[in-house]
Amino acid sequence: MLYLKIIAIPCFVLLDNAVRAAMVHNDLDVCPEHLPYINFSESDHNESHCWGYESNCDKRYRYSDPICPGSETGGMQTRKDQIDMFFNQGDFGYIKHQREEISYICEPSSREDSSLECTNHLRFCRGHNIMINFTDIKNSNRSIRYHMDVLNFGQIGGKCKFHKEKLDTQCDHLSPLQSWSPELRFFSSINYYPGKCDIIITEPTVIMKIDAINMYHHFCDFLNLYASQHVNASGTKMFSKNIHILIWETFDYESAFGETFQAFTVHPIWNLNTFKGKVVCFNNIILPLLSRMIYGLYYNTPLIEGCTHSGLFRAFSEHVLHRLNIYQEPKSNGKIKITFLSRNTKYRNVINENELLSILKNNTEYEVRKVVYSEEFLTFKEQLQITYNSDIFIGMHGAGLTHLLFLPKWAVLFELYNCEDIHCYKDLARLKGVKYMTWQDINKLSMHDKMHYLDQGAHAKFTNYSFDKNEFLALVEEAVVHVKKHKHSYSSKIHDEL
């Protein structure tokens, strides 16, 4: 039997709070602003910082509150109801509900026993001393991705009191990326643990079923991974990078955004072939929230109108930027930094792109940069560094606009044209808390090279565009007004924190 284990060296507990916080920060490598929230204890009612999901969290002290400006109430009777709805749909209130739902599917009788706990519909689960039998994968030549028959009965289980009827009831969202029903429906109770395990994994292991490869969908995976760390635990170990990531497919993990995993683990990424032909026991296993859950986070989120600024999305952004060492560059000339995302694709190109850029460059207050975000030209970290130092980010509808997650707080996302997909990046910008703009007057844009989709006419996403230069300039100037109004106050706060 092979044990995979990292031996941790214990450290002395220091009484001085400042020193202790510094040690935790160095160990966890977390954003300094997050430290008081990570150190929050649910047993200590004197703390003045909490994320917002803890049972004794006072609303006055939670990480952030949604902002619901204007007169629109989203159908709610009061502003408070509107704020609470947004908080529960796309903020730490969602985490709170998931944590409250956790219950045993398989219950331990002793500390040495196995356990399996899940939320409703098996959206999130965590297990202790869980066996998974991967022997069938060795005998199969098929490639596995989004398959629901990777396991069979008895190939996943634990030594615990199994509530089978409860499991069967919860297996109602049977779809690859909606829940863990496809895998856990085969769970069974075993008589011995670890029994005949070939390998025992002692570090926590997160099993992921990842979405599509483009940035928009893959960052749904990363956001839900981060959210799952909040659902799973609290305290100084919740963001430990001494965890393993096992992707539930046989393909080697390759992604233009793979550097993002450095924010979560120090270990290589595993896949199903890592353990093919083996029976593996996991001391601690996490089955995180998935990308396409019904009424999930980020994707399929039924977001109430009129509100912005999810603390969860802000914390995710800050967490990733900190761990990837992306930083705010010192002010050099005081100019408004405008980043224009150019597409290197067949459709949704801007035909008069150079004309629009030339107009912007004529203004000496602007520092204009045209970029193509492709791993052929820039690493993902290099892309993030540019994005995080942009005041205005301009681009056509497309997955690259997911970079809005890493814009500074005062920035503006100008989706040049939404191609009739109105809510995609508008809602994501609302969750992140950055101002969103898009083209309004369709009479001042032109479509080129229209691709006709079956018999339904031209599709807005499968064509190229040109834009009226005067209207474009007016919209950019509107964005500049917003940046100038908000940048100084946010920049001062960042300087003070540094």
Automatic annotation (TrEMBL):
Pfam families registered for this protein in UniProt: Glyco_transf_61
CC annotations in GO: endoplasmic reticulum lumen
UniProt EC number: 2.4.1.255
Keyword Cell membrane: no
Chemical reaction(s) catalysed: L-seryl-[protein] + UDP-N-acetyl-alpha-D-glucosamine = 3-O-(N-acetyl-beta-D-glucosaminyl)-L-seryl-[protein] + UDP + H(+); L-threonyl-[protein] + UDP-N-acetyl-alpha-D-glucosamine = 3-O-(N-acetyl-beta-D-glucosaminyl)-L-threonyl-[protein] + UDP + H(+)
Keyword Signal: yes
Residue ranges of domain Glycosyltransferase 61 catalytic in the record: 305-412
InterPro entries reported for this sequence: Glyco_transf_61_cat, Glycosyltransferase_61
Signal peptide from the UniProt entry: 1-21
Molecular functions per Gene Ontology: protein O-acetylglucosaminyltransferase activity
EC main group: transferase
Keywords linked to the UniProt accession: Endoplasmic reticulum, Glycoprotein, Glycosyltransferase, Signal, Transferase
Cross-referenced PANTHER family: EGF DOMAIN-SPECIFIC O-LINKED N-ACETYLGLUCOSAMINE TRANSFERASE, GLYCOSYLTRANSFERASE
Name this polypeptide is given: EGF domain-specific O-linked N-acetylglucosamine transferase
Organism: Cinara cedri
